């Protein structure tokens, strides 16, 4: 039986920053039995990853700290079926690109090497057993139920799209996981899994969800909306341009894309950095703002920063300049790793030849 204080500490780390946890009791039971919960995060190698990906990757760092057995599932077959405009070969190159960027981010976050497993969906999805299970699942499911699981399935241009929900659903069984983790936009898929996997004789898993990062213009940060996002390898001047053109009105908190970026990405990143060097919560700042007269105020929490901005103590211009510095400091290690990797640069050209 594990120490109760240790169990609560691990659970707190696992749940930190999440908006929803379904099946917490099953995770707690594993911890009480002294076992390491096995979980995975799925990502489809489609467009270039951007700053919003820091949210799930920071959570993977939390899971590792909590002693979980963590896997990143690169959904290559899913990406091919749902984003059918690109060839299977291109998807393969994008999968390799994603492995490079995810690995680089995890290293930047201080996640120890070999503590996160990388798995390609196609490594097991093309097996006879998996294919049969996916066909069984298709027999159980109505077309309208598939369309309700997510926005990308509502108006499918190809039949292939309707087969997509079964891939991440069955991954829970084929990866032998205890929980799946994803954004709030995965709620429909998670509900699909909870309903249909037991009908195939498989156990129901826990599902954990993180908040979605609004775009810099107030919409969802998305690869399909260039001005809404900052890519991991964005050059410093482009970062400055996008941040200075972001939605950030003096004193206004609601609908402020810049504040959302700070709350969900920048400050958690800096908190993780301090934790990695053994700093105690609250003893060092996680975000610095320089005022008109050159004074620097170091904030130890997002709430204090938001309060000062709402009260007019920080102008939007000063907040934007501070954010430019913080974001470029986050991205510098990724840019450096890219510049040092000829293999990564080569696959970049193959994965995104149109860029």
From TrEMBL:
<dbReference type="GO" id="GO:0006437">
    <property type="term" value="P:tyrosyl-tRNA aminoacylation"/>
</dbReference>
<dbReference type="InterPro" id="IPR002307">
    <property type="entry name" value="Tyr-tRNA-ligase"/>
</dbReference>
<comment type="similarity">
    <text>Belongs to the class-I aminoacyl-tRNA synthetase family.</text>
</comment>
<keyword id="KW-0067">ATP-binding</keyword>
<keyword id="KW-0547">Nucleotide-binding</keyword>
<dbReference type="InterPro" id="IPR050489">
    <property type="entry name" value="Tyr-tRNA_synthase"/>
</dbReference>
<protein>
    <recommendedName>
        <fullName>tyrosine--tRNA ligase</fullName>
        <ecNumber>6.1.1.1</ecNumber>
    </recommendedName>
</protein>
<dbReference type="InterPro" id="IPR014729">
    <property type="entry name" value="Rossmann-like_a/b/a_fold"/>
</dbReference>
<dbReference type="GO" id="GO:0005524">
    <property type="term" value="F:ATP binding"/>
</dbReference>
<dbReference type="InterPro" id="IPR023617">
    <property type="entry name" value="Tyr-tRNA-ligase_arc/euk-type"/>
</dbReference>
<dbReference type="Pfam" id="PF00579">
    <property type="entry name" value="tRNA-synt_1b"/>
</dbReference>
<dbReference type="GO" id="GO:0005737">
    <property type="term" value="C:cytoplasm"/>
</dbReference>
<keyword id="KW-0648">Protein biosynthesis</keyword>
<keyword id="KW-0436">Ligase</keyword>
<dbReference type="GO" id="GO:0004831">
    <property type="term" value="F:tyrosine-tRNA ligase activity"/>
</dbReference>
<keyword id="KW-0030">Aminoacyl-tRNA synthetase</keyword>
<dbReference type="InterPro" id="IPR002305">
    <property type="entry name" value="aa-tRNA-synth_Ic"/>
</dbReference>
